[in-house]
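CO-FOLDING WORKSHEET

Operator: S.A.
Ligand of interest: pyridoxal-5'-phosphate
Run index: 382
Mode: holo prediction, single chain
Checklist:
[x] sequence pasted
[x] SMILES validated
[ ] output reviewed
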Amino acid sequence: MYSQRMDHLPPYLFARIDELKGEKIRQGVDVIDLGVGDPDLPTPEHIVDALCTAARDPKNHHYPSYTGMLAYREAVAEWYSGRFGVDLAPKTEVLALIGSKEGIAHIPEAFVNPGDYVLAADPGYPVYKTSTLFAEGKIHAMPLTAENGFLPVLDDIPADVATQAKLIFINYPNNPTAAIAPKSFFAEVVDFARDNGIVVVHDNAYSEITFDGYTAPSFLEVDGAMEVGIEMHSLSKTYNMTGWRIGMACGNPEIIAGLGRVKTNIDSGAFDAIQHAGITALTGPQDCVRDACRIYEERRDVLVKGLSEMGFEVSSPKATFYVWMAVDDSMKFAAELLDQAGIVATPGVGFGTHGDGYVRFAITRSVERIEEAVGRMREMNL
Ligand SMILES: *Cc1c(COP(=O)(O)O)cnc(C)c1O
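OUTPUT RECEIVED:
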């Protein structure tokens, strides 16, 4: 019944974990879910208010524009300029997305011919791989290892793969490893992409979720980046708006136009009322973002301290709401955590074979629940 393409899709790990979690809850277990990376904090009130007002205005009840309202694209450009010092032309260098996952899922359609290589990190956000498979491209996995600070080693990519590659996905601050990248890495990617004629897609979903005084850069800050790439960004993680489905693609106008052409033929844009709320988010007070980071930082400290005291070697991430920890066998570890302690963590192998040997904890639960989880793990004698 289903296409052969569907056979190539990896099982969506989170769906399987949800099943196991559901079973535990039915058995009456008080499950602590540190699995899926979805903020538990609410969307700030002024953004919700903006949506309510805009939703009541009949002007917003029609098909939106394909590219996003000009006012939304201008707000994105203004935010990029203030936050990163990157100048974007709203009409040609900014495109509204129905969440950045949507942009990531569609971009290979515009640039990848059947059999072309796409370079993506392993472990990595699963959509880079599945979108490549839908476009009938081939993934070349770039291993992320602790020795390399979880940055891909571009010199390790075979020359014939590099010349046949059409697209490279990068993502820093990184999900799932929580690693950050120096701007010098982005500069290397620009050179590599220019030498090999590759489109760069930097996924910057976590640029605002940073700690200890660290500020994450935009890929577009680097010299030459605008010539070779775009950045996918999103309001999801910054403003606790995962359910709203609003993001943006920014950068090279030809690449933006290619993605725009695909989207025009598939979707009809993001609800205008949500774009109005997005404008409020991007142009309004930003203390809500700093407050959220402080909350994540406290949770991170509790979890990292607890795990370290149990003897795990775990570093304290400078960004994202994930803690990435080395374990012997990621599937076995995650299964035992759920079985014996009612804690959901994501086995690293779900993000790629090089993720085996790690688990990912999402610190998207209250500090009390994280303390409770640490207490339960202590009793397990891991
Ligand atoms: C959450 C996430 C996204 C997707 O966010 P949207 O809600 O679709 O904007 C994209 N990339 C990474 C790495 C993520 O973790």
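REVIEW:
The longest strand covers residues 117-122.
The mean pLDDT is 96.
[x] output reviewed
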